[in-house]
Every structure is written in C-alpha cells, then in structure tokens.
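Troubleshooting entry. The earlier prediction with nicotinamide-adenine-dinucleotide gave an output that would not parse, so I re-checked the input for stray whitespace and re-submitted. Clean input:
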Amino acid sequence: MFSAVAEKKRIAVVPGDGIGKEVIAAALEVMKASGAPITFTHFDWSADRYLKDGTTIPADGFAKLERDFDAVFVGALGDPRVPSNIHAKEILLGMRFRMDLYANVRPVKLLDAALCPLKSVEPSDVDFTVIRENTEGLYCDVGGNFKQGTADEIAVQEDVNTRKGVERVMRYAFDYARKHGRKKVLMTDKSNVMTFAHGLWQRVFKLVAPEYPEIQASHMYVDTLCMQMVREPRQFEVIVTNNMFGDIITDLAAALQGGLGMAASGNIHPGKTSMFEPVHGSAPPLAGKDAANPIGAISTAAMMIAHLGLDSFAGKIEAAVLEAVRQKKITADVGGTLGTRRSAEWIAERAAGA
Ligand SMILES: NC(=O)c1ccc[n+]([C@@H]2O[C@H](COP(=O)([O-])OP(=O)(O)OC[C@H]3O[C@@H](n4cnc5c(N)ncnc54)[C@H](O)[C@@H]3O)[C@@H](O)[C@H]2O)c1
C-alpha cells in the first residue's frame, strides 16, 4: 500500500533572544496556518540557557541538526546580560562555519512603494538578491595584536579567501539566477585596492561566468555599488560578494525594502541542512512589547519552506504578507498600528484561506 501522506519536513527551531522569540512564534503560527507538512522541534539555545548552565550549543548540537533535521529556523541572538556575546557567536557563526553554510542569500524585494525611503520608486524597481560568501573573509578570526595597549600597538586582521570558497559561492549565484529566471549576475569587490584577495575574485569570476552564457555577468567596485543601489536599484538582479561587503550592503538593501524588520535570509549549503533567519537582531529595547515587525521572520519562513520544495505553501504565505502590507495590517516601524501578534494572526488567517 502506498501512503498518500507526504513525509513531513523536520524543522529545528531556535528562537534565541529578545524579539527573536516573538517573531519566531509569529512565523510558526503562519507556517502552521498555511497547512505546510512540517514538524517543529524547539531548542532553547539562547542567553537564558547560557546564563543558567554555561551552554552555548551542546557538544553534539551541530551534528544533531545535520542528522535529524531538514532545516533550522533561527530568531536572533544577542543579549546585554552577555556583554561578550559569546553565545551568539558560538551559535550563529558556529552554524555558518561548522555546517559549512557557504551561501548567505538575502532577497531584497520592495512590497509597497510607501516603505521605500527613495523618491519615485515602484515596487518593481527594488527586486534583487544578494548572495554573500558566508564562511571566509574577514570573519575567520585570523589575526592578532602586537604590543597591545602601547603607543606602538599593531593590530592585524586577515582576509581569508580560498579558490574553493570563492568559486562555489559564484557558482551558487549563477545557479540561483538560472533557477529564478534572472538574467544578470554582478560581482562586487574592491580589487583596485585589495589586489591579492579580490584579484582572486576577479580571476575566478572570469572563469565561471562563461559557463552561464545566457546570463549577463558584470562587475562594480563596492563603493560605486552603494551609490548605484540608492540612485538606480532597478539595474540589479543578483549580486555576489564577499562576507564583509555582503554584511554591509545588505543593511543598505534592507533600508530600501522598509527596514530591518522586513528582511529575510537563508544560510545555505545545497543538499545539506541549511539555516534560515530574519536579518535583524534581538533588538533588546523592543523585546516584550509586542512591537517587533514579524514580516522579516514570516518571509524567512516562506523562503525556508520553498527551499524544502513546498513552493505552493510558500506562495500562500508570500501572498498573505503582500496583502497585509497593502492593507496596512502591519507594525508601527512600517507605518501600521498593529502589534506583532495581531499582525501575525491577520497574516495567518490569510495564509490559511488563500
Ligand atoms: N542574526 C542575529 O541574530 C543578529 C543580527 C544583528 C544583531 N544581533 C544582536 O542583536 C542585538 C541588538 O543589535 P542591534 O541593535 O545592532 O540590531 P537590531 O537588528 O536588533 O536593531 C537595529 C534597529 O532595528 C530595529 N529593529 C530590528 N528588528 C526589528 C523588527 N523586527 N521590528 C521593528 N524594528 C526592528 C531595532 O529596534 C533597532 O532600532 C545585539 O546583541 C547584536 O549583537 C543579532
């Protein structure tokens, strides 16, 4: 006998700290309402857990995520009671590095012209994706201080770029463009100054791009890119860049779509358990006030279930979010009057009915 019931996708949920807990609760409600065949298992890795027993992530934590789950859904990590932020670093950077989630994917889509700080911009003018290298660059913690605390101090922070790391994230960007019907991939760097590290990016881009002849490959220095993202964002479709520049330009990009509360992201290694998180942090001053915008987390949920092959359910959630924005069933940071919970309930009702 064949079972008509599709196997449910298993999602590990790490709400984390501050507003992370609130926006994850909101996104879980919407995913459940969409009817997507998924199960959730909660993990309490957070500042609370760290302060209670010193655990950031248990010894077998990463292996368990890879072995037992199809995806990981994270809220945000960061708490003023842990000034070193050690738990956030070990959990978030730990997942990115130890699970080798090398492509950080950040779709930048304007849902309503009123949300964009630029003049005379239509939603279709802001619709691109940034693919940020996620496991190398200036984030490898390689470096040191010499003669620390003296007037002669020297501080060195190494920018690590490997041929393998650069090539695979570029291929990911071109494959992403193909899969999503995009026609342009732009690589951004600072190769005029960082001649060794970004010279490698230049050479590899020139090798990889011809393998995708239907996609227009181009290059822009990152300073010019920042200017162009504000002057004429519609020229961009897919942007690929290193870890540090990706971190910076995606905050600028988030502002174009209405702020950090609207921005979604995935940390992906094709074929392996990947991790999805809203772009924003734990926003301690907002926590516990039912004021956090849940849309970044809800859009991240849609991205995650689409990644798991549940496109029709993701489509329902995206349509419900768009309708919420159009009807202003949203939080104050994006011009609405609802709290986190009520906005999420409204989106969940739509996603259930859509
Ligand atoms: N991925 C992550 O978990 C992540 C990312 C960034 C910062 N952090 C951590 O979060 C803590 C706070 O950092 P921060 O203040 O620099 O960044 P943040 O993203 O928490 O907040 C920045 C600004 O955006 C606003 N904001 C953020 N998310 C919002 C939402 N959903 N709705 C409405 N407004 C929102 C905040 O009120 C604040 O004004 C720190 O401990 C930091 O290390 C974590």
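This one parsed fine. The pocket of nicotinamide-adenine-dinucleotide is lined by residues 19, 23, 76-78, 85, 88, 92, 260-261, 277, 280-284, 286, 292-293, 296, 333 (CB under 6 Å).
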